[in-house]
């Protein structure tokens, strides 16, 4: 059985082997995706997908993956997770997949160079195309330890990135919306309200709205207390800060000591 899904950027330091799995080091990934697929809305050993989500496998595929030892069952009784092994990432691919892999590697190399340039010259951010900024932040957040899904342009459902991580054995999901508008254009209250509604409807644990050009005064003044708690705002400085953490970690100059959500929402308002 093949294990399929949208793969986050490869980051070897996220792999561990706490239970001495004979396959070696692994990390645990979510077993659910956003959206509803009726053949994947079932209860499995006392667990069901959260509202608005579906299992990534059919029941038969999930059972086969469990028999194969690829399902992680948290000791605290939390939702099952999929083991993603370092050995699988390092296994040579067949010739048919090599061109795709080469493109992926070239793209990631470009994004790494782009992050370094933004750290070196923060004003360079203004020259980055909006779609490249979305891809860059997907790479940056993946490199910091999140599972990342970058949505398709025009079909993003109101958010650009879906992040996943484990906190105390529980899966948490965060949505990120990115606006990279040229000055003096700035997101207004209607744009923020729509994203807030998306975060609520998707039942995400929180949302991060990033705007490289800042926000209009009415947008900031019109935020309710509940919207401030659920959706945090970041500006160009936050984008540069995330790139700095990513580059420093890649050079071995920084090791995160805070939880991933804490890193995500640091220096936001």
What is the topological layout?
Layout: E1 26-29, E2 32-34, E3 53-55, H1 59-67, E4 71-72, E5 81-85, H2 86-90, H3 98-120, H4 130-143, E6 147-150, E7 161-167, E8 170-179, H5 189-201, E9 206-211, H6 217-221, H7 225-230, E10 231-234, H8 236-250, H9 260-265
Parallel strand pairs: 8-9, 9-10
Antiparallel strand pairs: 1-5, 2-3, 4-5, 6-7, 7-8
Structure in words:
Residues 1-10 and 90-100 have low confidence and may be disordered. The protein is built from 9 helices and 10 strands. The chain has helices at residues 59-67, 86-90, 98-120, 130-143, 189-201, 217-221, 225-230, 236-250, 260-265; strands spanning 26-29, 32-34, 53-55, 71-72, 81-85, 147-150, 161-167, 170-179, 206-211, 231-234. It has 2 domains: 15-90, no CATH class; 97-265, 3-Layer(aba) Sandwich (Trna Endonuclease, Chain: A, domain 1). With 269 residues, it is of the alpha+beta class. Helix 3 packs across helix 8 (236-250). The relative contact order is 0.11.
